[in-house]
Amino acid sequence: MTSTKYLYFIVKTKPQSPGLINAGQICYIKESIYNKKQSVRGRSPSSAKLPVFLLGSLSSLDYDIEVSNMDKLSAQEAELLQALPEDEERLTWFREREALQTALGLTPGTPVIVEEGGEKLRGIIRYIGPITETPLDLISGKFFGIELQGQDRGNGPTDGSYENTTFFPCEKYSGIFAAFSRVRPAVPSSLSPSVPKHSAQTEAEGLNVGDRVTYFIDEKCRHGMVLYLQGDSVKISTDKDESGKRGGEVEVPLHEVVKGEVPAEPESMVVDSPPEEPDTEDLYTDLSVNSVVEVTLGDRNSYGIIRWIGTPLGRQEIMAGLELEEDKGVSDGTIFNERFFSCPNKRALFVKLQSCRPDSRFQSASADPCKKMPKLEETERETEHSAGKLETVPPISTEQVKHILIGRMKGIQGHCNSCYMDAALFSLFSCSSVLDSMLFKSTEPQDAPIQRTLLQDIVNPLRSKGFVEGRHIMKLRQQLQKHGYSHSFTTDEKDPEEFLTVIMHHILALDPLLKLSTGGKVQESYCYQIFLDQNRLLLPTVQQLLEHSFHTAALKLAEAPSCLILQMPRFGKKFKMFDKIIPSLELDITDLLCEGPQQCILCGDLAELECSDCFKESLFSHTGFKIFCGKCSTQVHSHPQRRSHQPTALDIPKAYLASSKTHTLIRDKLELFAVLCIETSHYVSFIKHGPNSNDWIFFDSMADRQGESDGFNIPEVHACPEVGTYLEMSIAELANQVPRDMKGVAKRLFCDAYMYLYQSPSMCLYR
User: Fold this and answer.
1) Whole-prediction pTM
2) Which terminus of the chain, N or C, has fewer Cβ atoms within 10 Å?
3) Digit-coded pLDDT (tens) for 502-527
4) Is-catalytic flag, 682?
């Protein structure tokens, strides 16, 4: 029960004093004290002060606040606003009076849409009220307990319980407690914010005999010609009467007539009686205001943008107001004396929302008119993969690459500076499973929607169909931005390592991929930036760069990583330290490990000593740390030029030394599976998907574009076997290659590499 012993106020401007009170806080005063103050105050209330208490504060002190700094609230409004956690947010929603009024009219059983983790989920209100106890007889924040429906079941954080108290029963993970700011009616009604009336002339005014018109009888749309006007009615010669015969006449009220022809909708306008409890499976759609849609009118498709969704004219079904691309509509956004939106004349058309479909020109069909549309079974697979199941879709194998991945409108569709994210996700998940554990690991409830988006909307569709729509990447970017990691995740270009660190560390709390040992201490990281103190390499391999960087920083690997993400040495995105870098298809990390047996580089016996002073001497080898057995070390350092060297003992397991058996040393190697490249400010990626030298593909999320500012990007994946040809060349041959003359996209791999991704073959999830 809402208390009537107290009066409630919201602080609309921060008082000069005391400093503990912020705008947006709710305060209260006993009604009896307020009435006494009112009688004493007389006619100068704005300059007077009230001794109020802060709602939800642990302090028992009251504060004298000027009446002019506060606005009075009803107890019901105060309950709704108190459920909001932040003062600034509370004040913002207080000013949205229509939203407050809408929330006050919601009742249990109402179908609603609730925002959760950046997603809009469908559900039914099962509970309205507080979920925490308050002292005295004060109000508490009023929450809406919502049971999720349909495919959104299982996407909530609760089963209808909060802190061991059950407020409504529902399936596990199918309940949500939400403040009113995240809840809106699924079907707009009189509760929803009102639509301003149109004060200009209506469409029916100005009718003349002979005009073609559209009229409605029994909720059915019909066409005819005006015979004559009489008062508030119109005599119409019908194209077809109720029996389907031509040439009849009918008299229709003026307000049921629209000048011009509204093309007949694809389905009947007849409305069945609504069920006792709404069928929420039919109440919801992915379409919303500003969605780009198409609708079949007659024998052709028309395209437009949804500008309004609601239930006009007392109809039961949900209608959509479209702004068409062509002058095929009936008005400028008004119908039957009401304005619902504004657009050029003859561009507005009102149809049932269920008659609208997403604009196929912006979907996954190729811009190539010769390309076939997806088959029914492919569409069904897409529906299955997007149905919210935590299913396992393995990465695309070498045998499947040509069938699933190659072509236009393949890969991940880029949109609004998303190439860094597109390239990173495609590289990690298209053909590799090394980091799939983060798709299934347990995570915090507030982070679960991001994990679901990553798995269900991006990784699974990419692996099953070879294509991810740009809207799913934007959804992920919006979720990340909402978490507060960056206010520009949806608009600005980022670095791949920034995105990967946010996802792996801050969101999914994945264990660090890399553990580095230096000076007896272990440092953890997700990526490794290669640094070089002096550039003595002319045409380096990745193996050489990694070894030189470790040598410079005196680093070792504390353990062999399952995945190694290396950032190439650059000065920003535009300034490269090397004109070319040769990809190392394998990284031998045996000598980079701080523990474990190693081989002498000269005789192959068990190594005991390492000499950092010998590291850059190419006499022994061009790569690798210089490690020796005791005998070879003595011989090497007997040379006059090396007598000053200071070899250090290697950390060899005692059990290994104590064993009398002859051991065959197995070298630890990582295999290359992807490379991210950047030229100027656009990221692309190369994928090594198989064991053969020509098993390479190239991905660009914005390879082409359809249309101008209102168009869309066309991603593309194509094979690039020329890469393998260059990798088989000798270093001398590669050094003589002129970048601009290199075939295909090979130049971008050798000259523009930004990030190399390596994996342990033994640690992939599906191998």
Assistant:
1) 0.50
2) N
3) 888 888 888 889 998 887 788 888 99
4) yes
